[in-house]
Amino acid sequence: MRILLVEDEADLGRAIKQVLVSEKYVVDWVQDGVQAWDCLESQWTDYTVAIVDWLLPELSGLQLCQRLRLHQNPLPVLMLTALGQPENRVAGLDAGADDYLVKPFVMEELLARLRALQRRSPQLQPQTLTVGGFTLDYGNNILSFGLSQPPQLIPLTVKEFQLFAYLMQNCDRIISGSKIRYQLWDLDEEPISNVVAAQMRLLRRKLANYGCPCPIETIPGQGYRFNTSR
């Protein structure tokens, strides 16, 4: 799941991002509402949830939510704020926030609320994903292959898992290397241009070592495709 974190308090933003990354989320952290809107309008990134502070410079979290809903964007939003009065909660929810977390909070509650948003929102990452003979277990970074029992189990690194999952979620579509790079590496990483090809080689080598056919094909000059007919 790719998360847009909008928090102008540097220490809190850094702490939240560290926790989310440790939970295997891809996180883009920005510190004002205008930057956040630029990220949301980008053709390169598809966010699955936004964590937004209410009191932001340039464009407030409340205004950001209102703008999202005005543009018919259904992105789930978890609002963070020190404003904990009932009228503030009502204003945040009426502006389009899906949930509301009052500061100070513990990180365990933040993660629990993200999981709750995930359960309520069908477009968010499921616990498992199955296409053809391949099943991904999001909780354990495990790929299983084969319709017979027991299937072949293949442990994946976080980035291998993210790459396989992203193409699997977009099966039979050609996804450019640039799109994959911007989607699976956060804005601060600035990965080298051939990082997708290098990661793809590692993934294919691992599948081959386990005797598993790779359903991801390279389309010269266009990108990669998870081919369900393979």
UniProtKB/TrEMBL annotation:
The keyword Phosphoprotein applies. Residues 126-228 form the OmpR/PhoB-type domain. It comes from the Bacteria. Residues 126-228 bind DNA. InterPro entries: CheY-like_superfamily (IPR011006), OmpR/PhoB-type_DNA-bd (IPR001867), RppA (IPR049767), Sig_transdc_resp-reg_C-effctor (IPR016032), Sig_transdc_resp-reg_receiver (IPR001789), WalR-like (IPR039420), WH-like_DNA-bd_sf (IPR036388). PROSITE patterns: OMPR_PHOB, RESPONSE_REGULATORY. Keywords: DNA-binding, Phosphoprotein. Pfam families: Response_reg, Trans_reg_C. Coiled coil: none annotated. The modification 4-aspartylphosphate is found at D53. Gene3D superfamilies: 3.40.50.2300, Winged helix-like DNA-binding domain superfamily/Winged helix DNA-binding domain. Residues 2-118 form the Response regulatory domain. PANTHER family: REGULATOR OF RPOS (PTHR48111), RESPONSE REGULATOR RPPA (PTHR48111:SF5). This is Response regulator transcription factor. It comes from Laspinema palackyanum D2a. The lineage of its organism: Bacteria, Bacillati, Cyanobacteriota, Cyanophyceae, Oscillatoriophycideae.
